[in-house]
Design a protein that fits this description.
The chain has 351 residues and is an alpha/beta fold. It folds into two domains: 112 residues, CBS-domain (Roll), CATH 3.10.580.10; 229 residues, Spore Coat Polysaccharide Biosynthesis Protein SpsA, Chain A (Alpha-Beta Complex). It is built from nine helices and 20 strands. Strands 12-11-8-13-18-15-19 form a seven-stranded mixed beta sheet. The protein has a four-stranded mixed beta sheet with strand order 1-7-6-5. The longest helix is centred in the C-terminal third of the chain and has 13 residues. It is globular and about 75 Å long.
Amino acid sequence: MLLDATQNMLPEQAPVLQAIRVIDQAQAKIALVVDAKGRLTGSVVDGDVRRGLLHGHSLQTPVSDIMHRQPYTLPVGSTRQKILQAMQVLEIKQVPLLSPEGMVTGIAVHDLLLGLQHGQRPNHVVVMAGGKGQRLLPITQDLPKPMVPVGGKPILEWILLRLRHYGFREFSFAINYLGHMIEDYFGDGSAFDCRIRYIREKEFLGTAGALSLLPPGDAHPLVVTNGDILSGIDFGHLVDFHAAGGRSATVCARAHRVEVPYGVLQMSDGCLQGIVEKPVHDHLISAGIYVLSPQVLPRIPQGQALDMPELLLSLIDEHHKIGVFVLEDEWVDVGRHDDLERVRRSFTDQG
């Protein structure tokens, strides 16, 4: 969606004060400076105004004195994917689109391209919360793993709050083992300022099979996360990364280091060629968080068990584009007792 740029355009001789009013009042927070023929000659955003005033310019200074003279633009007719990709790379939120003559034809705005309204994202989120959590026995004997408390709240509530912080409001929880406890706690989501629906598995369907039970027709990429993952990930950035790349799926990855505590023998034809003492190997592992484009969901067999690696490998076999989003934030798979204790200690240390 493009915005009409008329209310954002200023003549070169307009005062800085007028640029401030445009930035404050217009939907796209940018002033576009044009010459007498209406051709773009520069742009002004909030940072340009602050720098200009710091350098001694006044509110009556011509806007041409403080404008950015080489703003990033794209030609009219640029695809949504190309615009989003440029925004991601350059870390900008709006891009003027120009005619071949240099006339402003509109402004592409990041949030509007992604369908965001009032900071809310239209993407649906599915949390896989149906596993038995056998590695956390006996804690999970009478408690589903996503409901295990950490820092005074269930793991699943921390996941929900993180996603809600980034504007997600539509959730489905895939439940099975002791799923009624999850439903009783979260209800329809209204107490958490969101909407929660439930995918009730009759059999264990793995980490992807439950997606076949979603209602069809969602036009936006789907976020999928395991129900035992605590992470500092920026989910909004993840979805933007996926959308900008024209990908069928995106996998979140986490760096994992394996240290061998022994000398490793290097052999050839039964003879020792060398010894590597305590080698270290770095790998990228799946972080249990994914984004799937709408065209992927019909490929999931209805009501059959399927794990996410199987789904992703089938997409690779069919030559789909799969992105990898590398996490640099805190990340914990709360799947074992030592992981759980480590997370609980970190909450205690934070007070």
